[in-house]
Amino acid sequence: MRKHEKSRLFSRIEKRTGLKLAILIALIFNTGMYAQTTITGVISDSTTSETIIGATVAVKGTTNAVVSDLNGVYTIKAPDDAILVVSFIGYGTQEQQVNGRNTIDFVLKEEINSLQEVVIVGYATQKRNSITSAISTVDSDVFENRPVTSAAQALQGTTPGLVIQQGSNEPGQGSVINIRGIGTFQSNTYPLVLIDGLIGSIDNINPNDIETVSVLKDASSTAIYGSRAANGVILITTKKGKAGKTSISYDYLYGFQEATNMPKYAQAWEYAELRNEALVNSGLPARYSPQEINEFRALGKGTIWLEEIYRKSAPQESHNIAVQGGGDRTTYHLSVGHLNQRSLFEGNDAYGLKRNNARLNISSKLFDNLNIVATGFYNGSTVNEHAYWTNWLIEQATRMPVIYNIRDEEGNFTLPSGSNSNALARLTNGGMRTYEVDNFSGSLSAEWSIVKDLKLKGFFGANVSDNNTHEFRKSIDYAPYLGGGDLESSVMDRFDKTVLLNSTVTLNYTKNIGENHSFIGLLGVSQESSERRWFQARKIGIPGNEFGVLSNGTYTDESNTYGSAEEWSIQSYFGRLNYSYKDKYLFEGNLRADGSSRFASDNRWGIFPSFSAGWRISQENFMQATAGFLSNLKLRASWGQVGNQDIGLYQYLSTITVNTQAYSFNDNLANGAYFSVANRDISWETSETLDFGIDAGFFNNRLNFTFDVYSKDSKNVLVSNLPVPGIYGAGSPVQNVGSINNSGYEIAVNYRFDTGKVNHSITANLADNVNEVTDDGGRTLIGGTDVVTILREGFPINSYYGLMTDGIYQNAEEVANGPQQNFNAAGAKPGDLRYVDRNGDGVIREEDDRFILGNPFPRYNYGFTYSAQWKGLDFSFFIQGVGKRSMWIRGEGVEAFHNNNEGPVMDYHIDRWTPANPDASYPRLTVGAESANNAARSDFWIQNAAYARLKNLQLGFTIPKEITQQIGINRLRAYITGQNLLTLTKLKAGYDPEINSGDASNGRVYPVTKVWAVGLNVNF
What we know:
Layout: H1 3-33, E1 36-45, E2 56-59, E3 65-67, E4 73-79, E5 83-87, E6 94-97, E7 106-108, E8 118-121, E9 124-127, E10 135-139, H2 151-155, E11 162-166, E12 175-179, E13 192-195, E14 198-199, E15 210-216, H3 219-222, E16 233-238, E17 244-259, H4 268-281, H5 290-297, H6 305-308, E18 314-326, E19 330-342, E20 352-367, E21 370-386, H7 390-399, H8 423-429, E22 431-451, E23 454-473, E24 490-513, E25 517-540, E26 555-556, E27 562-581, E28 585-596, E29 605-616, E30 630-644, E31 656-665, E32 668-675, E33 685-698, E34 703-719, E35 735-755, E36 758-775, E37 781-783, E38 789-791, E39 799-802, E40 805-808, H9 812-817, E41 820-821, E42 833-835, E43 843-844, H10 846-849, E44 851-852, E45 859-870, E46 873-884, E47 886-888, E48 942-944, E49 947-958, H11 961-964, E50 971-985, E51 1009-1019
């Protein structure tokens, strides 16, 4: 090779080598500047410590991004000086700088953005910021970790306008629920309850299964349900599965119940002295000598029979297990629960409630445009109770003087004071009544996205309910005591089955036109039907008190052996249109047509429209300057009509009832048939509601405020017992002639704030409702015995009606100068109640001198909740109450020596009128006919039942995740909680201000219980 060629070759080599070296140096330099580090970490929830699936992790300022996997873990490559940004729907965005770290965990906090919250409405969902009607929502945390046996108990006091009262706290008993007052005289007042779209009972669902509850209160929100919605609608959504690895949660609660508001009795010697005083005041000789009274002092309080029939405490416990998970296309949620609540009644450890629940929800995306949701639910409950009625037991035990033992020294049940029964004997030896309820329900729905904005959804659901009752009442031998009225044994079986079917098809269309116009349209058709069959048989005389089956009965109790069946159906067409302009001006219209089998063909169909509008003032340009303070401001207005078809069946038809042994011919009993009076022209009861509302949010929606004022007119209300000519020869049929107005306001406030590392939450609500009969159909109805009510135009339904007292007569001169009170032969005497002579004729007569004295409806219903979290500690309390309520109470609970019995005598009877105690709170003590003047039905027996109750108190601790994960537990929380811990009320002891039932007026009702419990929440 020539020299110059070599030189050229070496020159090329040198140039290439230099270039490579330069490239190598540049690569090394750039690699130093932009070194990529592999970073991994876990993303979790700050409250629950659960991992978050599908969160986005991005390198700030680049398109480099990943999502967290099924375990909440992410892996990404980024330069050492990069910033990672993590975001997930419903949580606040969080940033962290890499700074050369290989492991970076993120703990996200839930974002306070209630305006974007999805709310369940009729047949659909809506964002809260687009709602133009009165809807309140309750989340799952209200129902969890509470020692309650039904969801209704947990809901009480949480929602303005929703009034929940206990009929009795005895295991297995339900609640009395109404929304915005009562708008009917004689039909059902219970709201429509839909559980995942299917009609159900709020008392049957497991509280732990509930995800959200929507309470629809005005006609705009309820009109989509037409004739079913006059009493409001409660929509319950149960928990659904979430995509990700399978997670298991277990919740356990164990507690003790104790009776509250028990009456306080006078001591044994006080009883004897007051009994003597009452006898002498009534012109009778004293019963007890001074020596006997001294002997009674040794007894102290004596034997309080009412305390003897109750346990000091009774346990209750619940277990709930939930399993959920799934993949991209199919998710599932399975839950099972068990509740065991022992009764406070003595006599049998089996008394109480046992309930088992199971629920399965499966959601599957079969195709990209087809989703299937299947649900299945089972509720099985068994209530074991005494074979005698509760009010009988409490009545007898309340009346018994404390000087008598309930058992003698040999352990025999006694029959003192002329009694023919012993309440504890009935509980111990009187047999048992068992209620068995099995509810099966299921639904299948499919949603098909036909095109981009058009969806077709079909729903079919079924609910089968079996209610069976078996009662074996045993005869009781009170030997060695003579007499006793519990000598008859009997057995009774009742079977009751209902099948409810519901199918719905809806077509939903969503369309946005440009950036300003948004439309949502809904069309639907539904068919609902119900079939029910029941029968009962009772036989008397079971030989040997054994083998309580019908075949062992000696003879049939004809009056309590019967059976029947009923069915009804309703077909409906409905539609809804929502329009939004610039997300500022909102409009909604609903229309529903219902055809019900409860009405004759000429009156079968009803049309129920509604309209509502909203103005989001905070979205206006002129409000932007206040955005930092005023986050949201919306005005709402709505009007609508809804119907009530729950007025009984076959009232437009003349039905035939066959009664056995109805007539006597030639000394022989014969069957008879009765024909009901019918009215083919009856139609819907219709409620028309006008509502105005304000929704406001402050400080980035940390403080939210809602206010509603409304007026609801119920028209064409069915009225019975209207006057008819005597020549007609029968009673009057029901007619659509009455009307009722319910008006009121509702306020709800919630505020979330932080002080240092402590998170606080305050929720409060207040509501008032005034009820007024605006048309009584020309009929004033007076009813009742001990408690007298009147239905009269211008006053609330069934207002109290009685005499008005004017103090206590102090001397004979006042008696002589006062009006004549001829309730007993001797007339009034000093120490007796004095009544107002309303008509001024100088004589007190109940038919002439009565006043309307208030009503039992609760007013100013309120609730207040405070909660705080600090690190792993959490604390909360909930207060619920009523600001105004009148309660007429009579009977042995308040009257000394009621109905000429030997007892009772309570502690408040000690402050009775005597010449030496003229300012007493109770009139003079009397017995028998001498008591007639003071026992007259008057406002003396009406008391203030306003109250405030510490409904729930809870303290919990969540063990740090770093510790629990070492043993395979994702979250572990232990807590202590209490229910009904303290009640402030002016009501006399022995009466609970919360109870609403006929037996509550005389104290013959199972007491509200206080519960202390401990619990455990475990998530795997």
